[in-house]
Amino acid sequence: MKRRDFTALIGSAAAWPLAARAQQGERMRRIGVLLSPAADDLEYQGRIAAFQQALQQLGWTDARNVRIDIRWGLGSDTELIRKNVTEMVALAPDVILAIGSRIVGTLQQATRTVPIVFVAVVDPVSAGFVTSLARPAGNATGFTWFEYGISPKWLELLKQIDPRVTRAGVLRDPANPAGIGLTAAMQGVALSLGVELNPLGGSDAPEIERAITAFARSPNSGLIVTLGAPTIAHRSLIITLAARHRLPAVYPARYFVTGGGLISYGPDPIDPFRRAAGYVDRILKGEKPADLPVQASTKYETILNLKTAKTLGLEVPTTVLARADEVIE
Predict the structure, then answer these.
(1) Residue 10 lies in a domain
(2) Are residues 33 and 98 in the same domain?
(3) What residues make up the domain containing 43?
């Protein structure tokens, strides 16, 4: 062996224990994840996978230099949410990814120090999660799902796809104040469209079924479904009820339509989770949520289920077909 090769080998060997000690000395970071859907929800499995993949691209790999604790199935049960939040905070994570207003609100009641990155929150300022979008000021920041200005577009879309509609039921989570704001925003265009709005509250399956069934008894009715823990958890029931009562319905997210719903208009469901990984990375590297502005969704899509439209006897206008990013046939 040549002397310089032997020297290089000895140098490399000496470096091995140093590298091992550095790796062993690296503190394992901890990320908590809290969400309402059950662990077998394929839609949300995909979103969490996108979050983890984005984290890995930023250098954070589960079980290597970060531990990710996920609590699924919190639903809309206040006590269950509180129990899981308490347990998560007790683990002293470096940052928590929280999906939905109910979970974020309960988290901030439990801690004002653990950093929170939220996704799928409509109005974090009115909810008190942040002081302003530009300067959150507290321990939370994240990504809004959509602004109140989206809900008039849902109503316009409902009227376009079925001009006969004169009554629109707005299905919302009674415990989520965002539903009130979305309904109020629709009121501004309801009169000009000749549509009467009817708020429908539903926090569980029996309430949702009673509300939709009672509303559907009158003719020329349509349905607008807002996003919330109950509507996510019971989306199959809502789609089934809309079909049973022949209600044209507009949904806030793509997976309602792939599950048999008529049409949706809403943000790209995966993008905020990928972007949330960027904020988690910055917090793990020392930045504070107070200094990271809340960001809005930037990608929106219209998904149309043509098979459902035909089942309802609807002749979809060419204007609606033209605006669809995806048509399911």
Answers:
(1) no
(2) yes
(3) 28-146+269-296
Number of domains the chain is built from: 2
Query: Is the pLDDT confidence value at 208 over 60?
Result: yes
Pair 66, 97: CB distance under 8 Å? no
pLDDT value for 314: 96
β-pairing, 263-267 with 300-305?
antiparallel
User: What pTM was estimated for this model as a whole?
Assistant: 0.81
Say if residue 138 is in the same domain as residue 159.
no
Looking at the fold, whether 163 and 306 belong to one and the same domain comes out as yes
The answer on 188 and 126 residing in a single domain is no
- Print the SS3 string covering the chain: CCHHHHHHHHHHHHHHHHHHHHHHHCCCEEEEEECCCCCCCHHHHHHHHHHHHHHHHCCCCECCCEEEEEECCCCCCHHHHHHHHHHHHHCCCCEEEEECHHHHHHHHHHCCCCCEEEEEECCCCCCCCCCCCCCCCCCEEEEECCCCCHHHHHHHHHHHHCCCCCEEEEEECCCCCHHHHHHHHHHHHHHHHCCEEEEEECCCHHHHHHHHHHHCCCCCEEEEECCCHHHHHCHHHHHHHHHHCCCCEEECCHHHHHCCCCEEEEECCCHHHHHHHHHHHHHHCCCCHHHCCCEECCCEEEEEEHHHHHHCCCCCCHHHHHHCCEEEC
Q: Supply the mean pLDDT for the chain.
A: 91
Looking at the fold, whether 141 and 98 belong to one and the same domain comes out as yes
